[in-house]
Q: What sequence folds into this?
């Protein structure tokens, strides 16, 4: 079972599509457990995850009211792997942008619009869509060739590749994992690497993220045993004071030690990190944090933890995982030292 902590802006977006609900506990979930907190909103969402594709089963605590993009937005939160594969189609699109817009507008009751169309796999048509509001994120849905229906969710091929994510990379909607890993290791990110040997796991971490804390505690023994190293990339997206706490960590004399203090003294009851917030963090860290947050966004990641790593199962290719791995020992065993140099140095 995987876990993901979501920033308030994502919860507010979910609230647009889901009736206000209250769940005192998150229900039984197959594949991923999402607990989204922001103010007085707490959504418990039950999903069924099947090789990267996900459908909503129910929402705890209230009625379910959503338009089709609400599903698409939630699908982006799945705890799934993203490999640096390719996506292509040699034919031209069968439906025009105007037909795609008519379909998207009707299916969403005017809440979304089509940006462009492109040929999809097996006769499907791809549509790049966005909410009909300013500065909304873009995503991909699929349409039947006759433009009579849309398919919402991740399309997965027989090899387990997520075709939505590959198409998003191909069309410039997101950065591929290899490029993201390279960007995360640049000095400008102020990433922090644990000492020792072993393959490197790049870990986008929010100091107030409870699921980051659970992952940290789960893999710390393996780090101490030399089975892997962790490259921490600080972001500040989960809570209002996350940016200030992250900047305080980056401004400390020893950021790695500060991260350890934050995680060791994490207060799970209030979901707050254990490193104190400084009154005067280094001004330069604000720009670093903003750039790291933007990098996550370009990767298509909206919550923490987000992980980048070289995978033995994928012949060493760089993959991205959103959330806590379901099987920590198997995940650690799958980490490889290359071929990307960022996975070993």
A:
């Amino acid at each position: 079972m995987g876990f993901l902590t979501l920033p308030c802006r994502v919860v507010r977006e979910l609230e647009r599509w889901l009736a206000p609900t209250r769940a005192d506990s998150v229900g039984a979930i197959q594949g991923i457990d999402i607990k989204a907190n922001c103010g007085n909103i707490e959504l418990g969402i039950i999903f069924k995850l099947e090789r990267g594709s996900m459908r909503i089963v129910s929402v705890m605590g209230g009625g379910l009211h959503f338009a089709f993009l609400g599903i698409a937005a939630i699908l982006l939160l799945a705890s799934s792997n993203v490999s640096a594969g390719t996506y292509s189609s040699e034919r031209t699109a069968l439906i025009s942008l105007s037909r795609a817009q008519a379909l998207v507008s009707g299916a969403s009751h005017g809440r979304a619009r089509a940006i462009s169309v492109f040929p999809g796999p097996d006769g499907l048509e791809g549509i790049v869509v966005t909410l009909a509001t300013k500065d909304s994120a873009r995503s991909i849905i699929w349409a039947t060739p006759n433009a009579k229906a849309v398919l919402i969710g991740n399309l997965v091929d027989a090899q387990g590749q997520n075709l939505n994510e590959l198409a998003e990379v191909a069309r410039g909607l997101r950065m591929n994992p290899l490029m993201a890993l390279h960007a995360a290791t640049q000095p400008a990110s102020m990433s922090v690497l644990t000492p020792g040997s072993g393959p490197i796991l790049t870990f986008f971490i929010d100091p107030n993220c409870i699921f980051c804390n659970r992952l940290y505690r789960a893999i710390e023994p393996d780090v101490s045993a030399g089975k892997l190293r962790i490259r921490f990339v600080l972001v500040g997206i989960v809570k209002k004071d996350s940016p200030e706490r992250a900047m305080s960590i980056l401004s400390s004399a020893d950021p790695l030690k500060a991260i350890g203090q934050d995680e060791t003294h994490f207060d799970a009851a209030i979901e707050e990190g254990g490193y104190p917030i400084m009154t005067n963090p280094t001004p330069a860290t604000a720009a670093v944090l903003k750039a790291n947050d933007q990098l996550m966004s370009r990767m298509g990641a909206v919550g923490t933890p987000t992980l980048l790593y070289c995978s033995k199962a994928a012949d060493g290719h760089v993959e991205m995982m959103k959330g806590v791995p379901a099987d920590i020992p198997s995940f650690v065993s799958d980490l490889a030292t290359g071929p990307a140099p960022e996975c070993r140095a």
The two ends are 30 Å apart (CA to CA). The longest strand covers residues 41-50. The chain has ten helices and 15 strands. Residues 17-80 have pLDDT under 50 and may be disordered.
